[in-house]
Amino acid sequence: MSVRRRTERTRYRRRTRIADVTTAFVGIGSNLGDPESQIGSALELLAAEDGIELLAVSTLRETEPVGYLDQPSFLNGAARLETELPARELLERLLAIEGRLGRVRGEGPRFGPRTIDLDLLVYGDETIDEPGLTVPHPRLAERRFALEPLAELDPDLEIRGLGPVQALLAELE
Questions:
Q1: Which residues form the catalytic set?
Q2: Which fold would CATH assign to domain 2-165?
Q3: Where are the domains of the chain?
Q4: Phi and psi for 16 in degrees, rounded to 5?
Q5: What is the mean pLDDT, run by run of 10 residues, along the chain of 173 residues?
Q6: What pTM did the predictor assign?
């Protein structure tokens, strides 16, 4: 795995703070077209959303595909944000951004190539299990490409029901 570059963290910071917020972490990935540009566009759209403040973006990492292997390598990272939106509405905004960037969910093989992938990984300390929304992300503990960016953004992060992000990473060794 190679580390591509660190996205400038202050670039997305808004000048006003949101009241009554939840800290959430979003996984970001792309392996079609120009992945770095796709991720940049997704972050700009995310930062422009009402009710969301994009606080930090991890280093972007080149990673091998998981599940469906016959595809290009991915560029992956994560974003830390604060939001006043409920988890379901945040997820809907993430899916809408994917759609604006050309992603059509349900097309192609599961875990196949994609222009952009925005996954709600962690939403505060909540555990949610509803149709179409599971938080923490159901495969988070199995995915180094998601855990490493989380550990970079918050080394002391405790993921409800899973444990400390550092311990989850150690289990993957």
A1: 103, 114, 117, 119
A2: Alpha-Beta Plaits (3.30.70)
A3: 2-165
A4: -110, 150
A5: 48 54 97 96 97 97 87 95 97 97 83 91 96 96 96 97 96 90
A6: 0.88
